[in-house]
């Protein structure tokens, strides 16, 4: 862990992640304009000194809209992932610890669910639950659960036969104690790495749902929705689709690179490539 | 290749598909929301809802609905589309052909370019070219399809110059040139992500192989660098690349949903969004099942190809 910052991936990832987290925490406070204020005389302007990122189809300041949209975008990604990791880990740990027919039944069901692409799975659930941020978040977390369960299970299996777990069993510790105090802490690192990388997928799926009109609803400043709303005007002012699009990419890239670097730091065997 | 391995894998695929039919059915019918009310609108009279429920067999218990649905599938009958009043098999079949053409174009174009690019990056590790490719591949994985598609539209389909059409579809058997013009932008959108994955995987495998003992031995034995790479390094770094390509088919199946919607490509993705918006349950079920089946079969195919390339896998 000591030479975490020796790789360019880690430096880049940390830098991007800091920008994104800064925007998510302080964005709404430092936004120079009201993100919902119309300015009909200054519609679809390119970047200038008064509007650093330009204005959208209603003359709203793009920088302010990006900054106020940051908290919900990051919260969506992190929230959906945490929920998905939670559900998935419980399933995976139960499967890994139980073994036998419980394990094989759970794994077969997960195999089936994993055969459905993430976005398709999410779309199905969102359509049934109805659109909106909360439902979209729940849908993404459900779609993530099978993959996370698989990783949690293999992490548990790899520590289950270690001597310290056997020692705890021999000491006569309770099953709950063994799982929470011996197995979980040691199985945690692959789960954390995978979760960090998944935040970037969650952000991208969330934005895609917003784009399709199934996630955040107008006049929200969610970035995917901003691209969708500005699409009609993209030939007159490409900035109003490019800026939110690039913001999504930066947020996703930040989590992705940071997760990759974390994996390399925690598992020296995989440090190549 | 041993038949036992093949048969075991084939059985596993069928098991997965059986579970998928159940999952798809459960998701589409057992979660809240009544299909009959969704079709008729919330102001429908109770009698109309009851009549439609009877017509859709929604009045039967779920296991009876499930069994009759599965029995239909086994006879090649996916029911009738509620909105289009056409057999689902026909609607989905046409869309599948269109999607397959888009997906295949993207996959072939990317495979031809990404494998040499990845290998080149591994050979020239640490140079500007390697770094550029790395950056590009990270960008590829971080840009959602709708952003890539929109940016490509801005650059290549603006009304001023109109290099490519902004959307639509021409069948290749009617006008091959028209098909090519329409397929470029959607295929490029899908291709960006695929290219990122595949070239990165080939690069990382290739650099590992290049530092292995047998490559050193081949060099020490005095083989030309060309022969070392072509006969020793490349074949050994391809098996993982094939595994990634098959995983990417899974990505492709999700990616086409958004890409087809944006470029008005009449394939499975567009059909699925239409069906979801209109609560056309038989179509939703058929498309989901088909996408899952394609994914499972592509995984099977890649396992077989890998087993053929690498004898160690067969006996694992």
From TrEMBL, chain A:
It is found in: Cell membrane. GO terms for biological process: transmembrane transport. PROSITE patterns: ABC_TM1. It is a multi-pass membrane protein. The chain crosses the membrane at residues 12-31, 74-97, 109-129, 195-216, 236-259. GO terms for cellular component: plasma membrane. It comes from the Bacteria. Keywords: Cell membrane, Membrane, Transmembrane, Transmembrane helix, Transport. Pfam families: BPD_transp_1, OppC_N. InterPro entries: BP-dependent_transpt_permease, MetI-like, MetI-like_sf, OppC_N. Residues 70-259 form the ABC transmembrane type-1 domain. Belongs to the binding-protein-dependent transport system permease family. PANTHER family: OLIGOPEPTIDE TRANSPORT SYSTEM PERMEASE PROTEIN APPC, PEPTIDE ABC TRANSPORTER PERMEASE PROTEIN. This is Peptide/nickel transport system permease protein.
């Amino acid at each position: 862990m000591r030479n975490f910052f020796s790789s360019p991936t880690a430096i880049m990832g940390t830098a991007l992640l800091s920008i994104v987290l800064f925007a998510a925490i302080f964005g709404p406070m430092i936004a120079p304009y009201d993100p919902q204020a119309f300015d009909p005389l200054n519609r679809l302007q390119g970047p200038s000194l008064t509007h650093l990122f330009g204005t959208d189809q209603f003359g709203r300041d793009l920088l302010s809209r990006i900054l106020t949209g940051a908290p919900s975008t990051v919260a969506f990604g992190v929230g959906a992932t945490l929920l998905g990791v939670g559900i998935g880990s419980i399933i995976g740990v139960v499967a890994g610890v139980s073994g036998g027919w419980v394990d094989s039944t759970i794994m077969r069901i997960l195999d089936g669910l994993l055969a459905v692409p993430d976005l398709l799975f999410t779309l199905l659930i969102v359509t049934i639950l109805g659109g909106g941020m909360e439902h979209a978040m729940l849908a993404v977390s459900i779609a993530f659960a099978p993959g996370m369960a698989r990783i949690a299970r293999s992490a548990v299996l790899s520590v289950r036969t270690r001597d310290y777990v056997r020692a705890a069993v021999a000491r006569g510790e309770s099953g709950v104690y063994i799982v929470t105090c011996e197995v979980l802490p040691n199985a945690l690192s692959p789960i954390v790495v995978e979760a960090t990388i998944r935040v970037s997928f969650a952000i991208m799926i969330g934005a895609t749902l917003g784009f399709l009109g199934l996630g955040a609803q107008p006049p929200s400043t969610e970035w995917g929705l901003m691209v969708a709303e500005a699409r009609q005007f993209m030939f007159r002012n490409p900035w109003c689709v490019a800026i939110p699009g690039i913001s999504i990419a930066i947020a996703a890239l930040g989590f992705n690179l940071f997760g990759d670097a974390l994996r390399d730091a925690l598992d020296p065997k995989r440090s190549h490539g | 290749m041993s038949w036992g391995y093949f048969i075991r894998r084939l059985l596993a695929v069928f098991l997965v598909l059986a579970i998928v039919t159940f999952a798809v059915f459960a998701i589409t019918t057992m979660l809240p929301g009544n299909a009959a009310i969704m079709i008729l609108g919330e102001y429908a009279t109770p009698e109309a809802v009851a009549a439609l429920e009877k017509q859709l067999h929604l009045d039967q218990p779920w296991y009876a609905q499930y069994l009759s649905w599965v029995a239909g599938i086994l006879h090649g009958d996916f029911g009738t589309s509620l909105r289009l009043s056409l057999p689902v098999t026909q609607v989905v079949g046409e869309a599948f052909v269109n999607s397959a053409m888009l997906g295949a174009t993207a996959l072939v174009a990317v495979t031809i370019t990404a494998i040499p690019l990845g290998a080149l990056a591994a050979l020239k590790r640490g140079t500007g070219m390697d770094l550029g490719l790395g950056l590009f591949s990270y960008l590829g994985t971080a840009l959602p399809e709708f952003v890539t598609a929109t940016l490509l539209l801005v650059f290549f389909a603006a009304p001023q110059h109109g290099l490519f059409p902004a959307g639509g579809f021409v069948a290749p058997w009617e006008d091959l040139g028209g098909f090519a013009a329409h397929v470029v932008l959607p295929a490029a959108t899908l291709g960006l992500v695929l290219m990122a994955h595949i070239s990165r995987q080939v690069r990382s495998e290739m650099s590992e192989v290049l530092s292995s003992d047998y490559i050193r031995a081949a060099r020490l034995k005095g083989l030309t660098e060309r022969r070392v790479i072509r006969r020793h390094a490349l074949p050994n770094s391809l098996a993982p690349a094939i595994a990634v390509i098959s995983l990417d088919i899974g990505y492709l199946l999700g990616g086409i949903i958004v890409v087809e919607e944006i470029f008005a490509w009449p394939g499975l993705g567009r059909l699925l969004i239409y069906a979801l918006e209109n609560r056309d349950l038989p179509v939703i079920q058929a498309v989901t099942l088909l996408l899952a089946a394609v994914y499972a079969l592509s995984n099977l195919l890649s396992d077989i190809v890998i087993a053929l390339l690498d004898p160690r896998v067969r006996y694992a």
